[in-house]
Structures are given as C-alpha cells and as structure tokens.
Amino acid sequence: MALADEHAALISVVVIVDYERRAPGRRFTGVRWNDVLDELALEDILRARQIIGDRDPPPRFEIVPLDRGRAIKRTVTRLDCDLVLVPTGRWFGRRRVRRLRRLLGVEVRAVRPA
C-alpha cells in the first residue's frame, strides 16, 4: 500500500479463475463447480477490499477467466498496469515470476499474502 500511496497509483485487484470447460455428460457438475469457483473468487475480492480499504482513486476489482496465460497479459494491457503483484508460494516461484515479467513487459513482484 505504501508503494501505491507514494505514487498516487490506481490499484486493480484481479482474481483469475480457471473455470471448468463444458464436457458432454458433465455439464451440470461443471456448472456447479464453476459456481463454487465464483464464490471463492468473490471471497478473495472481499478480503482484498477489507485490506485495501477506502482509497482515492477507488480501486478496481475484477474476476477474469483463465485463458492459458493470455488472460493476465490481456488484463494487464487493458488496465494499463505498471506493476503486477503475485502471491508467493507454490504458484509463483522465482522462475515463474521471471517468465511472467518477460511475457507482460512490466515489473512483476512476488509478495507474501497477509
């Protein structure tokens, strides 16, 4: 938050969801599972809203479907991001952060979730 305050930055929180694709015979199960994923994504956004609090300018919050890596690039371009923060841990190690930095063309930093 200090970095955003220092630069009067607009904060965007994006939750990327890997929805189950429709498969014959599993349509209803997939729909229910995708509803669960939506609920989890909304919980993440609510948690982010609580952490960020009221700000000026107000932060943007979005849920974006995963599209084999293109979702992140498209979203970063559309939102005109200069910095991308990703959670450290099993999903974003150093190697993946470097690859993401090359793919996006912006600074990418791994941070520990609160």
Parts with pLDDT < 50 across at least 5 consecutive residues: none
End-to-end C-alpha gap = 12 Å
Please outline the major beta sheet.
2 strands, parallel
Radius of gyration computed on alpha carbons? 16 Å
Beta strands, count: 4
List SSEs in N-to-C order: HEHEHEHE
Care to describe what's here?
- The chain has 4 helices and 4 strands, in the order αβαβαβαβ.
- It is an alpha/beta fold.
- The chain has a domain at 2-66.
- The chain starts with a helix and ends with a strand.
- The mean pLDDT is 81.
Compact overview of the structure:
The chain has 114 residues and is of the alpha/beta class. Helix content is 46%, strand content 19%.
List descriptors.
about 110 residues, alpha/beta, two-stranded parallel sheet, 4 helices, 4 strands, globular
Lay out the secondary structure.
Layout: H1 2-7, E1 12-17, H2 27-52, E2 60-65, H3 70-79, E3 83-87, H4 94-104, E4 107-111
Parallel strand pairs: 1-2, 3-4
